[in-house]
Structures are given as C-alpha cells and as structure tokens.
Amino acid sequence: MRTETKPWLSKSRFVAGVQCFKRLYLMVNSPDEAAEISDVGQLILDQGHAVGELATRLFKGGVLVEEDHLHSKEAVEKTAVLIADKSVPAIFEAAFTYDNIHVRVDILERLPRDRWHLIEVKSTTSLKDYHLPDMAIQRYVLEKSGIKVGKVSLMHLNRQYEHDGKAYRLKKLFTLETVQEGRKPLERSLGLLINIMRVMLSKKQPPIVMPGDQCTEPFECPFYDLCNSGRPEDWIGHLYKISGKKFAQLEMSGIDSIKDIPEDFELSTIQQRMRTCLKKNKPFFSAALPEKLAELKAPVYFMDFETVSPALPKYKGMHPYDYLPFQWSVHVLSGKGAKPRHFEFLHDDATDPRKAFIEQLLAVLEQHKHAPIVVYNQPFESGRLGELADCFPSYAARIKRVQKRLWDLLSVVRDHVYHPKFGGSFSIKSVLPALVKGMTYAGMGVADGAQAGVAYLQMLSDDTPPREKKRLRKDLLKYCEQDTLAMIKIVEALRKKSAS
C-alpha cells in the first residue's frame, strides 16, 4: 500500500484535473461512479494504441519499458538503466516518478550532449491546446528527476498522407510538431496547480463546480450524468445552438427552463419556436410545410449511408480519418398506397467496399433518373458521394446527377417543425418517436451511426466468432433499413399534419 501523505498524481489524473477539479476528485475517490467506456470509446482507445505502436517503428533500436502500471517502481528502475545505456537511441513508455507524480513518456529520444526529446504521440491530425497539459506534466516530472529535456514535440497523423494500399510509409504518415515557447504558459504555474489539486484531493467532500463547458470540452466527462442529473426536461442547455454567452446569462438570472426565458431575451427563430412550443406544450408546423412536401412527387427514393472513419487509412487512396462507406439502404415509394420496395447493401468482407458500394447504389437510383432522393442531412450524403466520384472518376458524371436529386428532410424538419418531445435535438433518433407513435430506435442491437461503424469493424475482425459476425450483420442491416423506413414514416406524419 502507498504510505505517502501527498495524494498520488499521474499524467491522466493531472489532465483530468485541468479539465475540471471535480472530475479529478471523483476519478480518485469515486471511480465506480464513472460511466462505462462505450464500444465507440473503446474503438478510439484501440486506434490510439495502434497509432502509438506504429510511431515507435520510426525509432530503430528503441527499447520498450514493458512493466505496467501495477509495477511502477520496476518501470522507473528499468528506465534508469536504459537512460544510462548510451547505446539505446530511444525509450518507449519511459517511466518517471517525482514527488509522488508518476508519468509515462510515449517516446523519449536521446539527443546529443545528454539531452532528450520528449515525444507525445496522438491519433489526432494536429496539435491541440488540450494536448499541452499532457506534455507539460511530463516535462515537469522529467526535469525534476534530473533529465535534461532539449525538445518537446507532438507526433500526430498527417491528414494529407495518401495510402498506397501497401505498407504504411511512416515518415509521411506522421508529422512531428515541436511545441513552441508561446504555447507553454501552463508550465510557469505548474507547481502551484499541482499543489491546488492536492489540497482539493485531501478534502472529505468534492469541490463545488457548477456544470458547464468543462463537462464536454475537450471530451465528455465520465461523470457527466452524476453532475448533470436533476435537470428539467426543457433545460436551457437543450436550446438549439445556444451560445456559451447566452447560456451563462440565463444561468446568472437563475433560469433553468426554456419556457421560463423572458420574451425580451434575444433568441434565434428556432429558439423562439422551441420556447413557444414548450410553453404551450403543443407542436409547431409551419404554413409553408405543405408546399415543401409537395416537391416529393412519386416515385420517391429514401436513402441512408453508414460509414466509418478509421484513424489509419485502410485502402488505397485513403487518408487518415477519411470516411469509408460500407453500407446503404434505399426504400422506393412508387405512388400513393404502394408498398415501399427495399434495397440494401452491406459489404461484409475485408476488401475495399467503395466500388461495389457505388456501383450497386447507382444501379438502384438510376431506375428512375429524375426521382427525388430523400436523405436526412444532405451535406453528409452528398459529401460521401463527392468523395466516391473523386475516387472513381468514371462514375463522376452519374454521381453528380444523383447529388442534384438529393432532398434534405433534416433541413425541412428543422425549418418548419418543432415538437416538445424533440428535446432540443433534430436528429432522426429524436424526431421519429415524437412524430411517429410506437416507432423508436430503443433496444436495437445497433442504434446509431457511431455504433454501426464499430459493429462493422467487429464483423470484419478475425477475432470475432462466426455466430457473432452473423448477429452483427443482421443488426447492421436492420439499423440501416430502420433509417430509411423512419424517413418514410416522418414524411407521412408531416403530410397528415399538413392536411389537417
């Protein structure tokens, strides 16, 4: 057991404290209260580990400190041995402890004259301000431990790198960005900040911190629900695109509920609409909605895509975080009273899905070459089609004609409709159950796009048992079909409201 009187800090604990003192306190004293890591969160962590492992390959002869967090003392001792061995050009996961603060350095590169290059590896595509505390605490501990840090850098993915489909060209895949002096203000007050954190951690009760931007920025806090429970259903935080300044003004005035916002408080058109609907507990449908819906003359297509954005490009021509479309669903309504026909595509092997995706999609969409194609968030689907046109120039003209046919149901709902049960969101997951009784995404094996991406990668994994692959495939098909069927039902519901 630890006998030190000073609360133990680590890199992750310090970074949590920079985001929010209460998050750090709960992380140390009530870890069981944290939300479980989701499948999507785990995918992000796994991608980060894969990126980190690739980065070490740039440093030939580097040595990994294999001792884990349960063997911190042994890890520090192993690091000291490697530092003393001048034949070791780089150390991976180098471990240091100073004043009961323990850090691990992704890559510690040996420089001339007994100096060292501290390199933090991230799976982002640029250096962010929220990376700075991470590197600052490492530098602090290293220098206090007697290590001469000559340079501090972030190694991140190069968004411009284009994969050739073969082995990664690591020197082009990664960018090494040095942290300039102008971005180091935190380091000047680091000792004071550490002391403040320790005083806070020694208290019997967590610090009083009002919920705010720190609950979600730069990342959603795992204790978000704990700190944000008890909010009214019409909480001002649900107000569509509310600015931080206006949110703070309302909070300072003691206003928690949207329906309590004064009439003279400046709001956007959509925000005013939300307030009115919540006050009256009655949905809104604009007078212009029937005219907009009249644009949908049979036959009408309803289309949805599923994509995943891997940090490491999987196929030729891809860049880090490029969208990889792997699934689509299309429903076609031929006329009033006709049963919708359904078409679907899901690429279920480890080859590049893009060519088959667009070939089979065009074959369906071109059955009626001038029919409108209803999508939910037109910029997204159009963007993915444009990327496929760039990837396969021979299809570009046909894809461009399809793009011109897209009809955005999201913008129609956002501009012409509001229901108190939307909860401030215009996502199809919120709109559907509010407008279509008994239809929801609750309880589905795959219930949103992020989950679909994770399920797709799991389905392709060699580690996934055949029975599980079969289940994932079924869940993916059901989810994507639900999206296009949901659009049909929403349009039907809107037409009924418009006619009444």
List low-pLDDT spans.
none
| Envelope shape | globular
Q: Radius of gyration, rounded?
A: 27 Å
**In the CATH hierarchy, what is the architecture of the largest domain at level 2?**
2-Layer Sandwich
Number of DSSP E strands: 14
C-alpha end-to-end distance: 71 Å
Structural category is alpha/beta
Number of helical segments with 4 or more residues: 19
Task: Indicate how many domains the architecture comprises.
Answer: 3
Class of the largest domain in CATH?
Alpha Beta
- What is the residue-averaged pLDDT? 95
The third-level CATH topology of the largest domain is: Nucleotidyltransferase, domain 5
Helix content: 40-55%
**Binned strand content:** 15-25%
Largest sheet: 7 strands, mixed
Description:
- The chain is of the alpha/beta class.
- It folds into three domains: 9-201, Lambda Exonuclease, Chain A; 230-281; 289-499, Nucleotidyltransferase, domain 5.
- Helix content is 42%, strand content 16%.
- Strands 1, 2, 3, 4, 5, 6 and 7 form a seven-stranded mixed β-sheet that branches. It has a five-stranded mixed β-sheet with strand order 11-10-9-12-13, with helices on both faces. A two-stranded antiparallel ribbon has the order 8-14.
- β4 and β5 form a beta hairpin.
- The radius of gyration is 27 Å and the shape is globular.
- It starts with 8 loop residues before the first strand and ends with a helix.
